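Thread: glutathione complex, take 2
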Amino acid sequence: MKLYSYFRSSAAYRVRIALNLKQLSYEIQPVHLVKNEQLLECYQTVNPSQCVPTLVDEDQSFLQSLSILEYLEERYPAISLLPDNIVTRSKVRAFAQAIACDIHPLNNLRVLKYLQHDLSLSDEQKKHWYQHWIIEGFNSLEAQLQDSNGQFCFGTQPTFADCCLIPQVYNAKRFKIDLSAFAKIESISQHCLTLPAFFNAAPEQQPDWE
Ligand SMILES: N[C@@H](CCC(=O)N[C@@H](CS)C(=O)NCC(=O)O)C(=O)O
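Output below.
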């Protein structure tokens, strides 16, 4: 399998965690987002949305991180990242979507660039924007984690929820957000990063890390 990825991309980080948890081997094809390689015509033919990740498996391209997680779950079900219980499964998907659909799009690189270059926001205003949407989103996530054991988001095994949470926490810390009000989020993040599948998916462990 080949994963078009950027070391700091939280959407690609989600997929790297899932591939590692499922013990699937893959090669990384770096796409340098700061150098705008996602906008190159040759990449646009791979991913018309001009973003990472893109997963290539068996000569097929798969787009959108959550859809890629669903594909991996159906194609490689041996190690499952969804709980058996149908209600918990729905909660896991809702949690993952809260990150991928509600929080992350507001703070994506192209949005930050637009705020800065087209709407002339200062660095400080841009930082406030970023922190505002993370904190608002994390309030909701923390409330959804009230039954968590502090190791994983839902139940005793990692799920899509953990695949999405850990990269989002990485982003929050990168933007110096104080997470002390989010005890469950902090605890789960610390625990997951002790596991090789999460640790090896981290930006610092990527071949394109700089
Ligand atoms: N909804 C997409 C989001 C993908 C996405 O926005 N990726 C970011 C990196 S985290 C990207 O490639 N951004 C490039 C840009 O904004 O120009 C997914 O979940 O795969």
